[in-house]
Fold these 3 entries.
Entry 1:
Amino acid sequence: MNIARNIPIIVHTPVSSFRGVRAQDGNYSMFLGIPYARIDPKNVFGSPIPHKFEGIFEAVDDTSRCPQIEEYNQTITGTLDCLHVNIYVPNSASIHNPLPVKIHIFGGTYIFGFASRYVYGPRFLVRHDVIFITLNYRLGPYGFMCLNTYIVPGNQGLKDQVQALRWIKENIRYFAGDDSKITIAGNSAGGQSVDLHQYFLQEPLYNRVILQSGVALNRPLHIRDPEPYAPIKLANLLNYTTNNINDALSFLNKVEPHELIAATRDSGVFLGPCVEKRFENVNNKFSNETKMIVRLFYYGDDVQREDNRRQEINVGADFVFHRPIFRTVRKYLESGLNNTYFYMFSFCSEKNYYNPYSVVNEASCCGAVHADELGYLFDCSFMKERLRDEDMLIGDRMTELWSNFAKYGNPTPKPSKLIPLQWPRVTQDKPQKLYAGDSCHSTQDLQ
């Protein structure tokens, strides 16, 4: 069906009009780099401000990113004009046929990451008749300076995400999206972000969630205490000497973003999600009896255990990912959220996201590692075209499962030729068994 009769290339909303572009690699349109909020120039570390402007916005550029040290070549990049969403609308959508919406929040330990097609290409998902959306949020000192003050309360990056979710909830109907079927997903820090919204967000901005190797209890992304003297440390590194936090903040507010990102990198200051409550260090709970039990369980009598890379990976996977995810799903079930599904990604090929750098492969045993499934869900432009039929099949199956969950709250509503089985729900009386490898995840339906 011709998109000109369904979704106009110009979409009018209460906040503005947006001119998108037709995709060249599939039957969908793209509305790129739409500002959902702006950053207050008088307080770049504060909460986001809703954005509204006049005229037609040319939604054709998805290259913006918030200030960061970029993951791939370690260069400092980004600007504060970065609070944007990218919306990908299949041609099948219309005002009479609104489609379910899937939103993805990227990972990157709250330090790096961006929402562009370079990593999160949409064409594998939109062919399943879902609207796909990615979003940017502030990172590092701009997103997670936690001072417990009114001016800089903390968790600005998470509040950016919430503001984006509000914008989507209020405006997606004008892009022929079904605002009663919104699924938010995230990987790693993005998954933890989604889980944190589950705990603390009171607004009905979405209906379902997909957590991919990221929950609130994950230790590498653990919520820690605020660092109230972080502004002073950063200012001193930038040759501004002061013992007054407000003076330091005033100085940092005017610092060129790339300079502040470099100073943060060199400071050793932790900047991430925070709460006022103090968390007990779990390592302090381990007695020397306990340590012996853990060592025997994973290594047995292997006196060369320090060289046993495989077992080291198993320990990390269990303590860093598996146990926190099991605890999280148990809490969901206990709270009455019963429409929950587990998955573990274990496929291995050149399309695994971290394949070239895989510590598992360094251990001379093939296997999937953290975030490897991204290469099958998204059209990552830096990867080679899929050549093997087996790789294509895995990608086709995963995108259908993810899209089905966004549509129906069930990854396998009925057996199909592509997926000739039904995925059972997790229940309290049927514990799920998982094995080594950190890609253990869950999906959750809130209806």
Entry 2:
Amino acid sequence: MEGEILQEVQAKKKREMERAKERENKTRELWEALKMSEGLEKMTIGKETTKAKNRTSIPLKELRIVLLGHRGAGKTAAGNTILGSEAFPIKMSVQSIKKEGCIAQRHVTVIRASDWEKEQLLMDTPELTKQELMLSLSMCPPGPHAIVVVVSVLLKFTEASRRAVQEHLELLSEKAWKHCMVLFTCEEWLGDLTIEQYIESEGKPLQWLIEQCGNRYHVLNYKNRKGSSQVPELLQKIEYMVTGYGGIHYQLGSDTISKLENLRKMETERAGERRTAVDKHRQELKAKLKQRN
């Protein structure tokens, strides 16, 4: 019986390695197609088919990136790695945070979006978090070049994880997927495994996410930061992706942005009024205690 189990495990691993190799080749072909998009009649990216005539891979002087993901996925570390500094604070924040830097001869803007709890569905996400997620896309006008879904290889990516990502992404709109790619963190934990082997072994929920993002993904190794080409390669992939869509960035409708900004302003004002009322109440209590003494 042990021999049969061992054979089954070995056969499963062999199938996963074969699929991993296929995915690696497919991904390489995708980036090559995007890189050499000029002169191609057409190319398929995920579910989208776009014309590529007269399209050139001109290096962008500016890149705008929004990092999305659940709490603990590694958005802060990813943002700091991309910018090459401790730009983002480690402390948790409900609000989305914007930081900028000059990386690989490009002006790079990175937004660390407000996060949801792991496996938390949209219906359970606080309204403030939803608003901050949507507002994060308006923090780098005229809109981000890439919406990057951060996934840690240290955490199991379950069906609930998949549903949470899908619901929060589609809160932004269906068209958001067209501008998405997956960024894996903590590659050093995988040892000798390739990221493709990890994707195939993790199962259908993660594979669905990769396919939904047009098989566009990258991986960061935090132990190999200095002298590494991983960040320039990430920026180049984003550049190729943008070129593949004719240089079009993601953009929320002006009406949606205006509505969200008004909601945020109203909530900030109400919060200020509430703080003022609380402070006044405290002062009155202190004055009464002082009179008694």
Entry 3:
Amino acid sequence: MQIARCSYIVTYLFLLIAASFALPNVQYFSVDSAHERGSTLSKRDNSLDEPVEVTVNLQQSLSTISDHFIGVTIDMAMVKNNWETLDFNSGKVQNMARALTPTFFRLGGGAADAVTYVLDDHYYQLDAPPPPSSLDFNMTAVQWEAVNEFARTVGWDFIMDLNALKRNADGSWNPDNARQLLQFSADRNYTIAGFEMGNEYGHFEKKFNKTLTAAQLAKDVVALQKLLAEFPSYYSSFIIGPETENSTEEYFQGFLAAGGYKSVRAASFHHYYFGSLAGRLSNFTQIKVLNSLALHIDDVMRQARSVDPQLPLWMSETSSASKGGVRGVSDRFVAGFLWLDKLGLCASKGIQTVLRQDFYGASYPLVDSDLNPTPDFWLTVLYKRIVRGAVFNATGRHDVRVYAACANTDSFNAGSLVIYTLNPNSHAVTFDLPQFQRQPRLLYSLTAGDSDGLLSKFTSLNGVKLELVNDELPDLKPESAPPGVVTVAPYSFTFLVFPAARVSICLH
């Protein structure tokens, strides 16, 4: 019996090895020399043994990162599910939320179009009438109060996605239900920084068996402007749109060209690298996947600039994979490669604001269903604390990513520079920084937090696992690094701050 079993195992291994030679793109799973999981094996390029020479053009900036560059979302589907396990009154949740402040917070998504705001005369109706169909649902006063009080408590700037499917007989938007919501909110002194009109109109026909033209949407946004003007609390609130799911000209450029650009503070679009069912672990570290975002942004930019060269652009809903993310992957350490690279690319290309889907919910949250921080939470907090101001062009090498910007003056002296890198490879990479060869630097090195490697639920900062301590965030302190070249670990993110750089653009 033992001989037969050994023979079977040998045969199986032989077939597996043979298949790997026949299919050179087969993905293997192992990270770190000992136990990581998720690396893609490939022929080693001899050039990878050489240091990556990084140069930064400090004479001019590409764009500017504001304190609201990164925002967050909660999907309206969470309202339909009565917030699931999210506890707005939890001190732990509030502490994590405050760590992201200042920030824009969007309550929206596909379910936003199917909701009816049910607010009785006393503002405390718990049991709303049944909705007319399985897609439709009601938001009660209690639910609306909960999210507004939370945003107020943690200092988030609220953006509300209104229900665009409320229509008159002639096809125009019916603002009656939205007016009830605004009246309720004004009576409670709720601050709402901005509004959207609906979500991803290209999906309306498939999802709701309804169609909405870009020209009609542009008219509806004008109607929303008139509605906001009725309320002193909201007449100065901004509008963003058209909230398209991709860069198709039918809705994005069509909305702007139909006059929509005159009514919005920014042209807004959504982005996901791939669908949840198509997502594989290897997608999260492949350079060609990372490169696809630049093409998408360039296309959106082209369409917007053809209508208004000065119109700001927002990526108002984004994560790794659409339709909730890839379960067991989009909330793990490996997701940070797509997230940090997206932040770097958006900053370099002048995207004004990036709203992360989701703060809580689905398979790509910053806070998981047990109300614990995911790896992308720590990455987001560090980015907000470290990076702010002018963005510079940085050159590196095709197999790694390198970005540069002013360091956040809330954390560092004016004139400080930060260079942040992604190493999506299974080997260490050395960076040579000739412009800053003799300068002291502060190092933030992020690696997987335990033996699960790329699929870890945890992150380590300079070798120390990051966890909340008594529901409070720990100190996120850097290490002092000696001058000279910098070697970064396999599958890691690194922020290098040069506090003595005295970059002239960063001094102002």
